[in-house]
Amino acid sequence: MRSKWTIAVLCAAGVSAWWPSGHAAEMRGVTKTEIKIGQTMPYSGPVSAFGALGKGEVAYFKMINERGGIGGRQINLISLDDSYAPPKSVEQTRRLVESDEVALIFSSIGTAHNTAIAKYLQSKNVPQLFVGSGASKFADIAQYPQATLGVQAPFRYEARLYARYALAKNPNAKFAVLSQNDDFGRDYVAGLKDVLGERYDERVTGATYEIQDPTIDSQIVKLKASGADVLVLAATPKFAAQAIRKAHEISWKPMTFVSNVSVWINSVMKPAGLEAGVGVLSTAYVKDPDDPAWKDDPGVKAWREFMAKYAPDGDVHDANYVNAYNSAMALEAVLKACGDDLSTENILKQAFAIKNLELPMLLPGIRINTSPTDHIPVDQMQFMRFTGSQWERFGDLQSGE
Question: What region holds the Leucine-binding protein domain (predicted)?
Fold first, then answer.
């Protein structure tokens, strides 16, 4: 996979001597003509659909390189397969740092996976930017001083919005939660607890699943038996689709919220059955290219042109490619802000000093902001509802802070 997804591989031997020795040590992964960055992606394994994020980011930097790179340097993004297994993420990240000597790790996918590599990266003084996770823990500067969340709303914030919305509709609502048994799922549980407080234990019935499980049918049957009238699916695409389908099959029709990592029509709503998903709620922070509202939007048009030229085999209905475009554009802005000083210290300084950055594929009104005390680039979302054919947004932008 390395050879398949590595772009702009350059011969650095002839330029390494260009740097004074002290400067070379300070600016790891950087030569006069290249900036080397790394990531791990699940190109195989149980969530290989998320590999589209890496493919989209590779394609984006191919476009940037064709336009001259950043500051005259080509971006060499080395994207390695970790099969969505944290031990493999650690192994591949060590390879990126110790063998490839990348300047930073960018957008590696997975909450458990980014957790597994964080202390190692800190020990090596390697930035961990725009992690491929919405877990709020990565905003804890004491634990993760060199990390920023990805260009997505935090899972915990998302869950808070779901709880507030459900309680506004029914103050006595009882909740059922299906969550992945890891930090990803637990972040949604934490968000519900933030809102429900002392009422959590009496108002919530939970069930978990493992990423290797073949099905979650029994969990859905159990949750229905609890009498809950609200269902929160803190699940990745395969299990979200199974849950929506099973609830429909057993004629359970609670107010249903699905994680915004699992809203893809082709990989979730269609496998679940379009009719089964009618009325399901979620949140959005990016423009959906399939939404007629964006038909003439310049940002969406530019994204479609990018896809046609640089990712022609990519599914234009898969919003992972939208997220890839946003994440890569955010990193581009950070690297441009670094100027000619691509030391670890300056990379982190610029990553934590983003001011009102507008990305053309974020929803209008959402801007990226970070500071030394705020490592959450995006904290706003808008509710949306599935109609049976598409997602329709409604209401104003909301923050889960």
Answer: 34-387
